[in-house]
């Protein structure tokens, strides 16, 4: 009984009549010709054009982003100028030169406020950007006064005298030939 | 049940006078093979006759796959157009109807793949409407039972649902379904039986206690 009811329900689901104009529709579709489809010889040029367009767009966007990053305040020439050692830096560097005569070498080689300032100024711009920036005037006010250090004369060492090496004399040793009794038999030598 | 009727063909009597013009032959007497032969030569009228002969079987196969009249009409039309373009490849190993139904089924499956979301949505909506929260008195109503049956058939796995619906169209024999679905004949029969068993089990779960 239930099998029949299931079959009946399935039959009703597919019991619709086909459209009466199906023949005419088929005829019209046949007369209209095959539908236009995307063929490979159409798709390939379109895909190539799209790739070129995307590449151009990427280049344009990256260039505009680079130009925005290289604003006039941080142009490469400015960065290079800021990285050049100044007069104060050369003074400090001169003071850090080792000298045997100077008794305060150890004290001078310890990092002072001026040295750390120099190190900070010599850092690459990328690392400096992460630190809180201050106005240039404030930074100049914090700079230590230049240290006046008298140049230390360095006397050159005298060249040492060449070392005198006595020549070795070898005396010849006279060796007497062995007698026949002292010689070993040939079979024993191995 | 197979309802695919063969058109009666009554040949006209031969004229007594040899010189008389032969009477027009009824199109019903022309076999599918002859119509296919004419259609291959470009006779669209012969192909139109083939459309008229098999439109019901093709349309109902598409309806079994799609459960939508509009989609089934489109799929049936596409199937006939495809068959017209592939007539040159018809070798006659199977009957024209079987060959045509195979094309129709593939077209319907292609339509179904495009409309899968629609199918699931519709099936789910109808399934929700028929959720089992009714009293036994309500379930006794034939209309509601019919709706529940349809909902359970739609909720079947596609393989079982296709076999059951195709078997009940009245247009397709098991042998034809076997060719259309590209599965053995025994598998077709098993799927139909399994579909019935699953539907009955689900009806029992929905409160129909008298389901056998």
Task: Give a verbal description of the structure.
The complex is a heterodimer of chains A (190) and B (212). Chain A has 190 residues and is mainly alpha-helical. Chain A has a domain at 85-142. Chain A is built from nine helices and no strands. Chain A is elongated. Mean pLDDT of chain A is 72; it is low at 126-130. Chain B has 212 residues and is mainly α. Chain B has a single domain (29-128, 143-205), classed as Rna Polymerase Sigma Factor, Chain: A. Chain B has helices at 32-40, 44-66, 69-85, 96-114, 116-129, 136-139, 142-154, 158-167, 174-181, 185-205. In chain B, helix 2 packs across helix 8 and helix 7 (142-154) crosses helix 10. The A-B interface holds A 1-3, 5-7, 9-19, 22-23, 25-27, 29-30, 34 and B 44, 47-48, 51-52, 55-56, 58-60, 63-64, 67, 69, 72-73, 76-78, 80-81, 84-85, 145-146, 149-150, 153, 164-165, 167-170, 195-196, 199-200, 203, 211-212.
What percentage of the residues of chain B does DSSP assign to strands (E)? under 5%
Strand content of chain A: under 5%
Helical content band of chain B: 55-70%
Poorly predicted tracts of residues of chain A: 126-130
Oligomeric status: heterodimer
Largest sheet of chain A, in brief, is: none
Instruction: Round the Cα radius of gyration of chain A to an integer and report it.
Output: 49 Å
Shape of chain B: elongated
Whole-number mean pLDDT of chain A = 72
Note the topology.
The complex is a heterodimer of chains A (190) and B (212).
Chain A: H1 2-13, H2 22-32, H3 40-69, H4 76-83, H5 87-95, H6 105-109, H7 113-122, H8 125-130, H9 136-142
Chain B: H1 32-40, H2 44-66, H3 69-85, H4 96-114, H5 116-129, H6 136-139, H7 142-154, H8 158-167, H9 174-181, H10 185-205
């Amino acid at each position: 009984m239930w099998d029949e009811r299931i079959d009946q329900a399935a039959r009703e689901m597919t019991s619709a009549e086909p459209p009466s104009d199906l023949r005419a529709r088929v005829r019209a579709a046949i007369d209209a010709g095959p539908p236009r489809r995307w063929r490979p010889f159409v798709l390939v040029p379109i895909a190539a054009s799209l790739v070129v367009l995307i590449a151009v767009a990427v280049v344009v966007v990256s260039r505009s982003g680079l130009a925005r990053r290289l604003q006039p305040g941080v142009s490469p020439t400015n960065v290079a100028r800021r990285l050049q050692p100044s007069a104060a830096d050369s003074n400090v560097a001169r003071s850090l030169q080792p000298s045997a005569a100077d008794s305060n070498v150890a004290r001078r080689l310890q990092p002072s406020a001026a040295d750390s300032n120099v190190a900070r100024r010599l850092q690459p711009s990328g690392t400096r950007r992460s630190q809180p920036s201050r106005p240039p005037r404030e930074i100049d006010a914090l700079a230590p006064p230049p240290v006046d250090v008298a140049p230390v004369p360095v006397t050159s060492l005298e060249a040492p005298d060449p070392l005198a090496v006595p020549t070795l004399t070898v005396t010849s040793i006279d060796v007497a030939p062995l007698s026949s009794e002292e010689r070993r038999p040939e079979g024993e030598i191995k | 049940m197979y309802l695919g009727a063969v058109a009666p063909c009554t040949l006209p009597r031969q004229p007594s006078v040899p010189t008389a013009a032969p009477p027009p032959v009824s199109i019903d007497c022309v076999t599918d093979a002859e119509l296919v032969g004419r259609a291959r030569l470009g006779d669209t009228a012969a192909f139109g006759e083939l459309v008229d002969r098999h439109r019901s079987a093709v349309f109902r196969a598409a309806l079994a796959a799609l459960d939508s009249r509009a989609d089934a009409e489109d799929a049936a039309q596409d199937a006939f157009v495809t068959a017209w373009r592939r007539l040159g490849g018809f070798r006659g190993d199977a009957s024209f109807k079987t060959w045509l139904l195979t094309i129709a089924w593939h077209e319907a499956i292609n339509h179904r793949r495009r409309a899968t979301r629609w199918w699931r949505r519709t099936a789910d909506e109808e399934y929700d409407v028929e959720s089992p929260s009714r009293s036994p008195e309500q379930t006794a109503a034939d209309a509601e039972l019919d709706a529940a049956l349809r909902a359970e058939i739609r909720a079947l796995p596609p393989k079982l649902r296709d076999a059951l619906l195709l078997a009940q169209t009245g247009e397709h024999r098991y042998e034809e379904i076997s060719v259309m679905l590209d599965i053995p004949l025994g598998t077709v029969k098993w799927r139909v039986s399994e579909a019935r068993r699953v539907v009955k089990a689900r009806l029992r779960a929905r409160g129909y206690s008298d389901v056998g």
